[in-house]
Amino acid sequence: MGIVIAIDGPAGSGKSTTAREVARQLNYTYIDTGAMYRAVTLAVIRANVSVEDHLAVTDIAAQADIRFAWIDDNLHTLLDGEDVSSSIRSVEVAQLVSPVSAIGSVRDILVKRQREMANTANIVMEGRDIGTNVFPQADFKFYLEANLETRARRRIADYQKIGQNLTIPEIMAEIEKRDKIDSSRQHSPLKKAADAIIIDTSNLKFEEQVERIIQTISLANLSQDKNGSEPNRNQ
Predict the structure, then answer these.
(1) 231 has a pLDDT exceeding 50
(2) Which of 107, 126, 109, 74 is nearest to 189 (CA)?
(3) What's the pLDDT score for residue 189?
(4) Boundaries of domain holding 118
(5) Residue 203: Cβ within 10 Å count
(6) Predicted pLDDT of residue 146
(7) Total structural domains in the chain?
(8) Is the pLDDT of residue 224 over 70?
(9) With 50 as the cut, is the pLDDT of residue 24 above it?
(10) Are the CB atoms for 187 and 103 separated by under 8 Å?
(11) Residue 160: inside a domain, yes or no?
(12) Domain contains 51
């Protein structure tokens, strides 16, 4: 297994864009686990299946071919060969992705795939339970957080890109609902790993978020080189 950098946090904390840039600078493989769950959710919506029908949703997750591809320096999500990068960011998907993600059998399927991805490459993986469940022994663990209004303002641009105009209060309400579902679900809830490095991104520029993570990794690697032993990277 290669080196694993786990970046967790709630919606709008900046983990996706930060993780993508960290991976680019380190020349690691970037894996957006949230996009994987959104892709399954989109497939469920298209199949006109209720998220309450766990068996049907699980069957869809098992059959879904989800891949990532770099196109024009942007990471695209492919579902059964179709580029669904924009479709998975819709309000409809956002409203249903948490219930889909809470289904234990769906998580089992996708977590297995995520672990397989780390067998052949150094990776930066972001999500909500990477450091606690997917890779509890990750080489580096980070947890990004931000206040609710900041997170909503970050989300509004995403919706505008796909032609959906929501207000800040509407997005704040949606994020609060997702937080509640994600943190209280029975299977692999959103929570901070005890040994994760916490970064509050509320007042940080994007470049500063990335720099803090890169510096932490660089210092740990420097310590390893000097001491000739494995550093305690998550302290």
Answers:
(1) no
(2) 107
(3) 86
(4) 4-218
(5) 9
(6) 95
(7) 1
(8) no
(9) yes
(10) yes
(11) yes
(12) yes
